[in-house]
């Protein structure tokens, strides 16, 4: 039985299916897609983003503009994100 969360995960990983992502990407390579997490946007506030970026835990941040990787140090705060914009 598929749960709503399975559908959301599949939506975020598109066009990959979950099994392909687990086999080829998880803990190996980043995966990002334009607009794939659109349904989650109402949950991600600027304060939450700032907290995630300031985390003392190691995080992976991919900075992209116009579909191209931006050669910049990964932002570690909302202020740094705003400077990139």
Describe the protein's topology.
Layout: H1 4-13, H2 18-24, H3 46-53, E1 64-65, E2 68-69, H4 78-84
Antiparallel strand pairs: 1-2
What's the gist of this structure?
This protein is mostly helical and 85 residues long.
Polypeptide structure, described:
- This protein has 85 residues and is mainly α.
- It is built from four helices and two strands, in the order αααββα.
- Strands 1-2 form a two-stranded antiparallel ribbon.
- The longest helix has 10 residues.
- The protein is globular.
Using only CA atoms, what is the Rg? Answer: 14 Å
Poorly predicted regions: none
Number of strands: 2
Helix content: 25-40%
Structural class: mainly alpha
Order of helices and strands: HHHEEH
Proportion of beta-strand residues: under 5%
| Contiguous helical run count | 4
What's the N-to-C terminus distance? Answer: 42 Å
Key descriptive features of the protein:
85 residues; mainly alpha; two-stranded antiparallel ribbon; 4 helices; 2 strands
């Amino acid at each position: 039985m598929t749960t709503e969360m399975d559908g959301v995960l599949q939506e975020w990983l598109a066009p990959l299916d979950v099994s392909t992502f687990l086999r080829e990407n998880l803990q190996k390579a980043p995966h990002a897609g334009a607009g794939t997490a659109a349904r989650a946007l109402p949950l991600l506030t600027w304060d939450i983003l700032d907290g995630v970026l300031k985390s003392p835990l190691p995080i992976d941040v991919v900075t992209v503009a116009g579909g191209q990787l931006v050669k910049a140090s990964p932002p570690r705060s909302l202020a740094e994100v705003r400077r990139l914009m």
